[in-house]
Amino acid sequence: MVMKIAFVGRIIDGTGKAPFDGTILIDGEKIEKVGLAEEVTIPPKTKIVKVNSGTILPGLIDCHVHLMGERTLDFMKSAFEPLELKSVRAAMDCSKLLNAGYTSVRDVGGLGIYLKRAIEEGEIKGPRIMSAFKILSQTGGHGDIHSLPLDIAKRTGFSRLCDGADDCRKAAREQFREGADFIKICTTGGVLSERDLPTSAQFTLDEIRAIVEEAQRVGSFVAAHAEGTEGIKNAIKAGVKTIEHGDFIDDEGIDMMLKNDNILIPTFSIGERIISEGEKYKVPEWGIRKMRQLWEVQSKNFKKAKEAGVKIAAGTDFGGGPLTPLGENSQELEILVREGLTSMEAIIAATKTASEALNMKDKIGTLETGKFADLIIVDGDPLSDISILRKAENIKVVVKGGKIEKHLKSSKIAFS
């Protein structure tokens, strides 16, 4: 018999509703009922968790991570590290994510398809993972390792190079065959690809459409790395669901996103880290230079998109290691607030809207009846100080699918 659990305290449910003092009743892995104290009857023999101080929130979601086990952004070095070593690192990163309150993530290129299985089997601890497996990139595109001979580049890293609609279609099918949940593509160049520019469009419309069609056939979707204006619009025209980065989006692109109900995932965190500490951690000079060139442009265009009503979801582009540490993902929420979101809007970006970006809005993202019981208890009020979410020690309790994954005994939370 599965024991019911009731969490009683101050609740931010992720829907945008004002905080309220109430009760969340959990039965097994799902939420049975949420409401004010007088609205929820706690059955006998229910385990009661009283949150005397702090706040209950939905489990956090990062829509853009790379579970690659990377420890450097010097890709020429990381390209030749053993995959077995990266796998062990990535497993440790999963534990760090859960400890930091991230109960779900979207792996947009990495080992997520395997880590997900290990987590579901109970071998390791970690968040719920949606994974794209390998990134689809044109030859010479953002996913290519430009300094390597082509035959080596094709066998190295986490990209599948494909050219022409038929090959792109085949590449998408290969990812789904391996267990991918969705497809990640590159429709522009980028910052950390040596011989292209973020403004350069990549893949033709026919190529992108072929990939989108394959995803739609299996009830899935496509996420597009898209920084330049033309590549953003091509991705939207072809039917992608989410725009990753979106640095050079213009007014027409914003209107297209609104019309097509696209979600923007700006990933400010990696840019701030590269600019502030990239040289210290051996990021190539050309990568730091390109990031500095687009930083102010991205901020300006993001504000325009936000004011127009484009949906915003939180994602860091972190892949592990000292420069982009998985476990400090709530840095993105701090930056979103600095860039003009309210603290509540930032929380929604990492919960409700993020669940839409994972194609799981009916299952996670808000504390509502029938959804998975994914929640965290944080010490303090994130609406007054969003930065408290960034430190794992402030995350006192983590529940994923009704299971208590973390409980700091020193917290002022009474279990009875």
Please explain how this structure is put together:
Helices cover 33% and strands 22% of the residues. By secondary structure, the protein is an alpha/beta fold. The protein has a five-stranded mixed sheet with strand order 3-2-1-4-19, with no helix packed on it. Helix 3 links the parallel strand 7 and strand 8 (128-131). Helix 7 packs parallel to helix 8 (251-260) and helix 11 (331-338) crosses helix 12 (343-349). The two termini are 18 Å apart. The mean pLDDT is 95.
Q: How are the strands of the biggest sheet laid out side by side?
A: 3-2-1-4-19
- The total of beta strands comes to 19
| Average pLDDT figure | 95
Overall SS class: alpha/beta
Fraction of helical residues: 25-40%
N-to-C CA distance: 18 Å
Number of helices: 13
Radius of gyration over all CA atoms, rounded: 21 Å
Strand content: 15-25%
Biggest sheet details = 5 strands, mixed
> Could you name the ranges where pLDDT drops below 50 across 5 or more consecutive residues?
none
Identify the overall geometry. Answer: globular
Tags for this model:
22% strand, 5-stranded mixed β-sheet, 5-stranded parallel β-sheet, single chain, 416 residues, alpha/beta
SSE layout:
Blueprint: E1 4-11, E2 20-27, E3 30-36, E4 47-51, E5 55-58, E6 60-65, H1 75-78, H2 83-99, E7 102-107, H3 112-120, E8 128-131, E9 135-137, H4 150-155, E10 159-161, H5 165-178, E11 183-186, H6 205-217, E12 222-226, H7 229-238, E13 242-245, H8 251-260, E14 263-265, H9 268-277, H10 285-308, E15 311-312, H11 331-338, H12 343-349, H13 352-357, E16 375-378, E17 395-400, E18 403-407, E19 413-415
Parallel strand pairs: 1-4, 6-7, 7-8, 9-10, 11-12, 12-13, 13-14, 14-15
Antiparallel strand pairs: 1-2, 2-3, 4-19, 5-16, 16-17, 17-18
Helix pairs in contact: 5-6, 6-7, 7-8, 9-10, 11-12
